[in-house]
Specification:
heterotrimer, A alpha/beta, B mainly alpha, C mainly alpha, A: alpha/beta, Rossmann fold, four-stranded antiparallel β-sheet, B: mainly alpha, MetI-like fold, 8 helices, 0% strand, flat
Chain lengths: 272, 223, 221
């Protein structure tokens, strides 16, 4: 696919520049177009929730931001700089590994299945990145990790391995692990989907506290409509690889304009 | 430098070819012994008669924990001490068959133990005898998953036949040693033996894998 | 002559042979672990030539007999200018042979570490080398230890073949005793027992212990 790179700016500048920008981003798996020319801006400190039926490309959005997936065309910007590309002689070219490593340090992610490192304790999980990647001293990393574990209510379980923790506890440690890297953007990919109903509130409580107390930019994919409504600044409804409708939670949940949005919401509400 | 001689290689090739036949025969014979004896070992460990189970288990462990080469020597040399003279071929096939029977019994056992308990209970519920249960219910289900292991030990036995050269079985390694001693040249015979082994074991291993995939597909384990 | 007399008369040979076998085993095991790690990881490399080298090594050593390899490395390799003394040739060949089997174990274990672990390590911005060394390999290790236990016993048994290039290990000394005394049952029987005790009561328990330690370290026990 040819994509005229000159229409993408080299950097995003100005006070109103978004923290995250997807510009004309397309992602395909073979013949299947997962995301079709997506444009999406997320402002600094904004909490944006992505909802939609499975297969609508919502998780792909987060995975591309974490560089777990490549994109086929378009450019993603984070914190003013291109993430998927980099500047070479005044034009944008595909990002190399070094550029992606530098950019990745701005982003943290929590996964549906937690993906804690089973051979490390809760504390070890939270210290791994700071010590190994950021080069922090063990002492400093431990202090910070304990602070974060305390914040997610897991301080007394710090010496437990993941296998000894419940799903809700593991997810809380995973959030602390991601925060320990001091990201500017946090991604939550269906973080409550693998949890038993009675422990979901442990995790949503932590995310709520994050929103209230920190000025993080967040993107969240979830099936918890109530939580999305309560916590989001903006909700995007994805359908078939693009944004069908977006707006404040009140707008989207109370008076959706598009028929597909209405159908989806009524189906989900009925299931609940 | 190395001085590989092609004419010498050509000269010894017929002799190595003939010895290859002996190698294949030794492998086939040893495998036949191992297949049957292995089944006996496996079933003996499933009898309700506890001493038999325990003794068989220890015998299998013992065979698996000691070198085949030593077992070959033991069987070949200990007989004459008590007045039983075994030919190299008989002793060799016994040793290699016994050794691999121990391994195969583990494969069989794994297969049998992999059959869910409910199958035994269902067989009991329709009043099948023990023999019928094995023949009609258990073995048909135990065999397919065990096939890969069973096939791999065919390749394993084949690769272990050179050890029979130490008691004078005229297989490939034996032929290569004789050629080397006669001509004071070891490079060509040993290299050719290596290549012959590769030429036989690689395709066999590939076939075993293909076979395993085919069986798994047939069982619906993979698409 | 009772069996005790036999043992008393030949204990020096049996003991020195056992020590050589022990040395061959330990050294061969080290070579095998190193060869397995290197070849197993090479097989996962993104570059095709790197994978190719590992595949050739693994297929050659798994496709031929240890005895053929031993003879070739001891008798034919010197013609290429690489001469190893028999002791070195012995443990190196045994190690390389079983390292090829181990390489497949390493590859399989690394591949079976869940994909989410790679992704989480990437999300923490770890370099590829760190991801492998700190996150993936420790988990792969736990998964592959049980088959390594069997492989270690195979390595021990494999060292018996070094007697055929005249390394004076237990197998070699036993044959010497047999040739001198014709007491085959006693000679070979003693060696069988020594190998058995070695495998069953030293190598296997050691590996089981290692499994337990690693399982505890990873928090699965």
């Amino acid at each position: 696919m040819t994509d005229d790179m000159s229409r993408y700016p080299l950097t995003l500048e100005g006070d109103d520049a978004p923290m995250v920008r997807f510009q004309n981003v397309t992602k395909k798996y073979g013949d299947l177009t997962v995301l079709d020319r997506l444009d999406l801006d997320v402002g600094a400190g904004e909490m944006v929730t992505i909802i939609g039926p499975s297969g609508s490309g919502k998780t792909t959005v987060l995975r591309m931001l974490m560089t777990l997936e490549t994109i086929d065309s378009g450019v993603i910007y984070v914190d003013g700089e291109p993430l998927t590309h980099m500047e070479r002689n005044g034009r944008l070219v595909r990002a190399n590994a070094a550029h992606m490593r530098r950019m990745r340090s701005k982003i943290g992610m929590c996964f549906q299945h937690f993906n804690l490192f089973p051979h490390m304790t809760a504390l070890g999980n939270c210290m791994e990145g700071p010590v190994q990647v950021l080069g922090m001293s063990k002492k400093e990393a431990e202090e910070r990790a304990l602070e974060l574990l305390d914040m997610v209510g897991m301080a007394e379980k710090r010496d437990q391995h993941p296998a000894r923790l419940s799903g809700g506890q593991q997810q809380r440690v995973a959030i602390a692990r991601a925060l320990a890297m001091r990201p500017k953007v946090m991604l939550f990919d269906e973080v409550t989907s693998a949890l038993d109903p009675e422990v979901i509130s442990e995790v949503t409580g932590v995310i709520r506290a994050l929103v209230d107390q920190h000025n993080l930019t967040m993107l969240m994919v979830t099936h918890q409509m109530g939580f999305a409504r309560e916590i989001s600044d903006r909700v995007c409804f994805f359908f078939d690889g693009s944004i069908e409708e977006q707006g404040t939670p009140e707008m989207l949940f109370d008076s959706p304009e598009k028929e597909r949005t209405q159908q989806f919401l009524s189906a989900v509400l009925e299931a609940n | 430098m190395i001085g590989w001689k092609w004419d010498f290689t050509a000269e010894i090739l017929p002799r190595l070819g003939l010895a290859t036949l002996n190698t294949l025969m030794a492998a086939g014979g040893g495998y036949a012994v191992a297949l049957v004896l292995g089944l006996i070992f496996a079933l003996a460990q499933r009898t309700p008669f506890r001493p038999l189970t325990v003794v068989t288990r220890e015998v299998v462990e013992f065979i698996r924990s000691t070198p085949l080469l030593l077992q070959i020597f033991f069987i070949y040399y200990v007989g004459p001490q008590f007045g039983i003279r075994l030919s190299p071929w008989t002793a060799g096939l016994m040793a290699i068959g016994l050794h691999y029977a121990a391994y195969l019994s583990e494969v069989y056992r794994g297969g049998i133990e992999g059959v869910p308990k409910g199958q035994w209970e269902a067989a009991r519920a329709i009043n099948l005898s023990t023999v019928q249960t094995y023949r009609r219910i258990v073995i048909p289900q135990a065999l397919p998953p065990a096939l890969a292991g069973i096939g791999n030990y065919l390749v394993g036995i084949f690769k272990d036949t050179p050890m029979l050269s130490v008691i004078g079985v005229a297989e490939l390694m034996h032929a290569a040693n004789s050629i080397g001693a006669e001509h004071y040249r070891y490079l060509e015979p040993y290299t050719m033996v290596g290549l012959i082994f590769l030429a036989i074991s690689l395709p066999t291993a590939w076939l075993v894998r293909r076979f395993e995939t085919a069986v798994r597909r047939k069982l619906g384990l993979i698409k | 002559m009772s069996y005790l007399d036999f043992l008393a008369a030949h204990s020096d040979r049996l003991i020195s042979g056992t020590l050589i076998t022990l040395a061959q085993f330990v050294l061969a095991a080290l070579v095998a672990v190193a060869a397995a790690l290197i070849s197993g990881l090479m097989k996962l490399a993104p570059l095709k030539p790197v994978r190719g080298v590992a595949t050739v090594y693994i297929e050659i050593f798994r496709g031929t007999s240890l005895l053929v390899q031993l003879y070739w490395i001891f008798f034919a390799l010197p013609l290429f200018g690489i001469s190893l003394d028999k002791f070195t040739a012995g443990f190196v060949t045994v190690g390389l042979c079983y390292g090829a089997y181990g390489g497949e174990l390493v590859r399989g274990a690394v591949v079976s570490v869940p994909k989410g672990q790679w992704e989480a390590a990437l999300a923490l911005n770890m370099s590829p080398l760190r991801r492998m060394w700190r996150i993936i390999l420790p988990q792969a290790l736990v998964g592959m230890l049980p088959p390594w236990g069997n492989l270690m016993v195979e390595i021990l048994k494999g060292t018996a073949l070094v007697a055929l290039i005249s390394v004076t290990d237990l197998m070699f000394e036993t044959r010497q005793i047999n040739n001198n005394t014709f007491l085959s049952a006693q000679a070979f029987g003693s060696a069988l027992i020594i190998y058995y005790v070695f495998a069953r009561f030293m190598v296997t328990p050691l590996m089981r212990w290692l499994e337990r330690v690693m399982a505890r370290k990873i928090g699965r026990a």
